[in-house]
Write a structure and sequence with these properties.
This protein is mainly alpha-helical. The protein is built from 22 helices and 2 strands. The radius of gyration is 21 Å and the shape is globular.
Length: 459
């Protein structure tokens, strides 16, 4: 059982991953050629030895980035030390902000779900995905995007993926991985407060998440947890390395980043703790920039919850998030680049073109390009909710993930009251998460539980 796909495809994805994380491209290509020359139906016994050799490669000495997995090493490479924001925010106002974050996440996710298809995410024939998004929406008389995606279009570029979240059918937040992980994060906080371990994260997945609901890195990690279970569900440090790394070429993809939000909600004004909790969650299935993405977003949300929403506060929250990841990483460099791009453009289309030119070489569900897009969308949108979430979605790549993340951060900064009614009303304050006790549930009830379970821990 290979997990997300067959062993041959996992190997080819691993070749790309090893090059991106700094191994010699020439050495990787030699091994890749060996497998390409094998028959399509070659048995695992012929591919696995080559895969194992690929995993032994060291990072090239001239690789310009330093990207550790150990938390202490990560902290040594951050641009500044520990940071807790002082706040006198009122309890009603804080609840409104947490509610805004939950609601913004649901809205952004629902907005992006119909466009989560290969064509809109990846593009085709040298054309970026956003061009096909625009073509589809023009054919639906919905460009520029200013509401939920129409379910049909006169355009011939393709069809939407999920009709349930289109403007003609939307009635609640459908079950989606971008929401399920937020619920699971909330359950972790409620069950363990700030004391959960990475093994506790794995245990919660095994008890809560059906295998069919996990994708890419999470599916590979889930598979590896099952292999390592020995009559119990506690994993040793060596087990955890195996779980996140064995046959998992997706360990820098977006799966951990979309799991960040609940940890930010739990730690208003304490981005240091939010990043630490996010690290414990992420390291189950991800490494390097995959881990940093979750730490970054959790810290941004933590900061946004106690900032006032004044001019410059979006950038301030992003800078605080950036301070929690290694300044020597590809993600740090890319976030800086995205922040600069957002100030250089006047239109969405200009921004999309520059983002695809800068980050289009990554897989459409990689952490780095999508984190860069979320950053740019927030800065481009500023205090305009609609502008921020539609920018995040209409660019392509991981449309529902990015809409959800931008909606969450925006809602955390400005609060539920600031989100326009036209975006809120179609969801009818209802979430079907697919998680026991949260299916269905009021979105406002999720916010209440996050508010009551928050961690005012100063270290």
């Amino acid at each position: 059982m290979s997990g997300w796909t067959n062993l041959r495809e996992l190997f080819f994805a691993e070749c790309q991953q090893r090059i991106e994380e700094g191994c010699s491209k020439q050495s990787v290509q030699k091994l890749k050629q060996q497998v390409e020359e094998l028959p399509e139906d070659a048995p695992a016994t012929l591919i696995l030895p080559v895969y194992e050799e690929l995993m032994k490669f060291d990072i090239a000495p001239d690789f310009p980035y330093e990207e550790p997995n150990d938390l202490e090493e990560i902290e040594k490479l951050r641009p500044q030390g520990r940071q807790t924001l002082k706040t006198s925010i009122g309890q009603d106002h804080l609840y409104n902000k947490i509610h805004g974050a939950w609601l913004g996440r649901c809205i952004g996710c629902a907005l992006g779900r119909p466009l989560e298809t290969h064509l809109f995410m990846s593009g085709h024939d040298q054309q970026p995905g956003w061009v096909f998004v625009k073509d589809y929406l023009l054919g639906a008389n919905a460009w520029p995007l200013d509401f939920y995606v129409p379910g049909s279009s006169t355009s011939e570029v393709g069809k939407v993926y999920n009709k349930g979240s289109t403007k003609e059918h939307i009635a609640f937040m459908e079950s989606d991985d971008d929401i399920r992980y937020t619920v699971i994060g909330l359950k972790l906080i409620k069950n363990y407060r700030g004391d959960f371990t990475t093994s506790d994260v794995g245990r919660t997945w095994l008890w809560t998440l059906p295998y069919i609901h996990v994708c890419t890195a999470e599916r590979q990690a889930y598979r590896n947890m099952v292999i390592k279970m020995r009559g119990h569900d506690h994993f040793s440090p060596a087990d955890l390395v195996f779980i996140r790394r064995n046959l998992n070429p997706y360990r820098e993809w977006i799966g951990a980043q979309i799991r960040a939000d609940a940890f930010g909600y739990a730690c208003p004004g304490n981005p240091e703790l939010a990043a630490k909790l996010a690290y414990r969650d992420a390291i189950l299935s991800h490494e390097k920039n995959g881990v940093y993405g979750e730490m970054f977003i959790a810290a941004v949300i933590s900061a946004a919850l106690v900032l006032d929403g004044k001019t410059g506060d979006i950038e301030k929250a992003l800078r605080i998030g950036l301070s929690k990841i290694p300044r020597t990483s590809r993600l740090y460099e890319s976030i800086e680049r995205a922040m600069a791009l957002a100030t250089e453009v006047e239109t969405q289309e200009e921004l999309f073109e520059m983002l695809w030119n800068s980050f289009g070489h990554y897989n459409p569900v990689h952490t780095i390009n999508n984190a860069a897009l979320c950053t740019a969308a927030l800065l481009f949108g500023q205090d305009d909710f609609e502008k921020a979430v539609t920018t995040a979605v209409a660019c392509g790549w991981d449309t529902d993930c990015n809409g959800a993340t931008v909606g969450s951060i925006w809602g955390a900064l400005y609060g539920e009251d600031a989100i326009p009614s036209k975006w809120k009303e179609p969801l009818n304050d209802t979430l079907y998460s697919g998680i026991v006790d949260f299916h269905p549930i009021r979105i406002s009830e999720c916010a209440r539980q996050s508010f009551e379970s928050r961690l005012w821990l100063i270290e």
